[in-house]
Design a protein that fits this description.
Chain A: GO terms for molecular function: ATP binding; ATP hydrolysis activity. The complex is a heterodimer. Chain A is α/β, with parallel strands linked by helices. Chain A is built from 9 helices and 10 strands. Chain A has 2 domains: 179 residues, Rossmann fold (3-Layer(aba) Sandwich); 67 residues, no CATH class. In chain A, strands 5-4-1-2-10-9-3-8-7-6 form a 10-stranded mixed β-sheet, sandwiched between helices. In chain A, α3 runs parallel beside α5. The longest helix of chain A has 22 residues. Chain B is mainly α. Chain B has 12 helices and no strands. In chain B, α9 packs parallel to α10. Classes of the chains: A alpha/beta, B mainly alpha. Chains A and B meet through β6, α2 and α3 of A and α8, α9 and α12 of B. The structure holds adenosine-5'-diphosphate (ADP) and magnesium ion (MG). The site of magnesium ion has 4 residues of chain A, from α1.
Amino acid sequence: MLEVKGLRKVYRTGTREVEALRDLTFTVENGDLVCLVGPSGCGKTTLLRCVSGLLDPTSGDVRVDGKAVDGPPPGMAVVFQEYGRSLFPWMNVRDNVELPLKQKKVAKARRAELVEQSLDAVGLTGSESAYPWQLSGGMQQRVAIARAVAYEPQTLLMDEPFAAVDAQTRADLEDLVRQLWKRLGVTILFVTHDIDESVYLGQRVVMLSSSPTVVQDELIIDLPEARDQLTTRADPAFIALRTRVYEQIQAAKRNAGQ
Amino acid sequence: MTTARRGSSVQAGNPVLLGVAGLAGLLLILELVPRLGLVDEKYLPPTSTIAAALADEAGDPAFWTALSDTLVAWAIGLAIAVGAGVLAGLVIGSVPVLRALTASTIEFLRPIPSVALIPLAVLMFGTAIESTLLLVVYASFWQVLVQVLYGVADVDPVAFETARSFRFSAWARIRHVLWPTALPYVFTGVRLAASVALVLAITAELVIGSPGLGQAIAVAQSSDAVPTMYALVVVTGILGVLINLLARTGERRLLAWHQSVRGEVTV
Ligand SMILES: Nc1ncnc2c1ncn2[C@@H]1O[C@H](COP(=O)(O)OP(=O)(O)O)[C@@H](O)[C@H]1O
Ligand SMILES: [Mg+2]
């Protein structure tokens, strides 16, 4: 279980202070797929960096299975928005996926197996020897997802992973995430600014206000488990849910404006 | 269409051919100028005379000893400078406190011309090869250090955080993120240092009289063997070109990925 309690983060640069997060509290049960949605600049990346132990919060705490996070916890993998910079350009696809496994001291035979399985799962079999910069944006993000999946994490954090890919690729990758989640039983915290995406993907959506950021509302997404880009998005229940989320985010903006 | 293409190819020409033609032209002029009496042959012998002197040198074992002395001083000096520069650069660059602490010192020491250390070198090592080494190492070290510092500063924070999030050890972060990022800069540093090292090796030999081509040039000059002096100068020039060529080829071979990445817009 992932618990975020009273999380606050203030960036200090010289004399300037930016309160990126004011007070965030929410939990994600093991095996859940929770989407965090909020406007650009509301501190989503800051939150993920605190959760993944890359950044120390100013106050409040983050716990994974009851253990306080200070530094990147084992069993957690992050997929960054900037896939082009997150992959290592001096390594081919196979080495990129394999390197974290080597660091984790996974035996060689098992590494080869995991690399193959995960590249297969994201539909990249045959691209092992390509370098990241030889691939399209969508394929690069698939490599980053494969790298995270091969790591066999209990928790997967994704920071607006599809914000920079085209709409068609994005739809495919959304379905890929749902499919991997169901198959691997991994806990996913998926951050996005896209309301439709959060409703389409999540079992639950946590809405963030704009800065200074608090949790505005939470919503259970009671759509059928099997989701489909066409029928789900046309479902009146989907439309009602996305309207709810949209209204909350608008309300948050009004409150912030006052 | 065809005419246009032919026209443009005539305009651009073949750069290699043009380069060779230009060099041949220069050599011809250098042959003619003294022969026509425009310059005293005593100071500028014709190309053919220099070529003959060069052939003589090639048959003289003393020349080969001098050449090897210069190359040994160059290679050892460069190796020390590269090793020390890379090590210091990685350590200083990855520890922000050290970086701030050393910044002004580096800016002070770096611009000191290596030749200003000649008296010190003579004092410490006399005319031994160590004198040459001191100057070579001092001059080349900064070239490498500064480039490595640029390289370390160029590490992508996202790549670095990726490594951290996958719990890479400190050593693995240096080995797999810092080092590959800095490598193109290291190459630039080595290439610059290789040229500077040659200049300083020759200078030291020339001025201090430590063994090598520089000393041979000084000896030729003082014994009035002007064509030999020119022949030796030509050899140093050829060395410079070869060293640069070697460094560039190595750079291209080993950094294929970098060449391809450079032009690309990162997301
Ligand atoms: N390293 C930093 N130093 C100072 N301010 C920062 C830093 N990172 C982010 N911020 C600020 O914190 C706020 C939240 O940023 P971020 O977490 O990137 O938002 P989001 O991911 O939701 O777009 C922004 O106002 C941003 O300018
Ligand atoms: Mg962000």
